[in-house]
C-alpha cells in the first residue's frame, strides 16, 4: 500500500484541533472554541467559513449526511446541531445539554433520528428525534441513559445493522449494548479487559476491534473480538501486532473501519496504524489480519480522520502544525 502526502501550507495558527471529520466535498476542523469548514477537493483544502461556537473546546464532530447538518460535542457539556448552509453568520438548529459533564464521543445512526453520546460522567445517553412534537421543526429529547460504566466513556461504535452498540472507557470495561424491538437499548454483555481503552470499532455485525492502553501508554496489539453463537457472547479471538507500544497516547482520534478497503485506521502512541482484513467468511478466525502500513509522527498530539471511501487520510499534529492529506494510491 502506498500513500501520497500533500501538506496544506495555508493553515490558521491553532493549537490542538481535538476533532477532524470529513465527508466529500467538505471537511470540518474543530479548533478549541470554533469550527472551521473547508471545501475538500483532490487533497486540497479551501477555507469557506468559521463558526465561533463556545467558551470551551470542541471534543467531537459528526456529519448528518442526508440532511446536510453536523453535530458537535464540547467540553462545555453541550451537543449542538448546526446547518451546513455555509452562511457567514450561521445559527445552530438545536442545542442538547449534557448538564455539567464533558462530551467525549458521539455516534449517529444512519436514519439520523438518534444520537448517542459518551461523557465524562460515566454515562451513555440516547437523544431521539420526535416528529410528533410541533414546537420546533427539530425536536430532540433525551430518551434513555445507561450508567454501567464507572469512569469516562471514551469510545462508541455502532454495527452495520445498527442494532448493537459497543463502548469503552477508563474502567477496563467494554459494554455490548443491543437494541430491542421497543427501540430501547439494553446492556447484553460486559467484557472485562486488562487495560482501559480510548478507541474501538465494529468490523462487521459480529466482530470488532479494540485498542487498549495502559496508563495512557500505547499497546503492542490491536485486540479482536468475535461473536460466539454457541454462548451468545463476544469473545477475544486474537490480536494484531501494531506500532506505538509504550508511547504516550491520547484520545480524540476515533478508531475507524473502512468497509470498502476492509481496513482499520487506529492511532496508538506516536503512530497511525493501518490494518488490513482479508475476508474469507464472516468469522475473524478465517480472516487474514495484518499491519500494512504505519505513519510515525514522533509525538502523541495527533488528530485526524479518514474519508468514507478510504481514499484520503487527513491529520493535524503538534510537530508540523499543518493539515496533512494522504491519498491512498494502491492497495
Task: Describe the protein's architecture and organization.
The chain is mainly β. It has a domain at 154-300: 7 Propeller (Methylamine Dehydrogenase, Chain H), CATH 2.130.10. It is built from no helices and 29 strands.
CATH class of the domain at 154-300: Mainly Beta
The percentage of residues in β strands lies in: over 45%
Compute the separation of the termini in Å.
4 Å
Q: Could you give the order of the helices and strands? A: EEEEEEEEEEEEEEEEEEEEEEEEEEEEE
Computed Rg: 19 Å
Name the CATH architecture of the domain at 154-300.
7 Propeller
Give the quaternary arrangement of the chains. single chain
State the gist of this model.
With about 325 residues, the protein is mainly β. It has strands spanning about 1-10, 20-25, 25-30, 35-40, 45-50, 60-65, 70-75, 80-85, 95, 105-110, 115-120, 125-130, 140-145, 155-160, 165-170, 175-180, 185-190, 195-205, 205-215, 215-220, 220-230, 235-240, 255-260, 265-270, 270-280, 290-295, 300-305, 310-315, 325-330. Strand 27 (about 300-305) and strand 28 (about 310-315) form a beta hairpin.
Give the key terms.
mainly beta; four-stranded antiparallel beta sheet; 331 residues; Methylamine Dehydrogenase, Chain H; 29 strands; single chain
How would the blueprint of this fold be written?
Blueprint: E1 2-8, E2 19-23, E3 26-31, E4 34-41, E5 44-52, E6 58-64, E7 69-74, E8 78-83, E9 94-97, E10 103-108, E11 114-119, E12 124-129, E13 140-146, E14 153-158, E15 164-169, E16 173-179, E17 185-192, E18 196-204, E19 207-214, E20 217-218, E21 221-228, E22 233-241, E23 256-258, E24 263-268, E25 271-278, E26 288-296, E27 302-306, E28 312-317, E29 323-330
Antiparallel strand pairs: 1-29, 2-3, 3-4, 4-5, 6-7, 7-8, 8-9, 10-11, 11-12, 12-13, 14-15, 15-16, 16-17, 18-19, 19-20, 19-21, 21-22, 23-24, 24-25, 25-26, 27-28, 28-29
Pfam family, one: WD40
InterPro entries: WD40/YVTN_repeat-like_dom_sf, WD40_repeat_dom_sf, WD40_rpt
Keywords: WD repeat
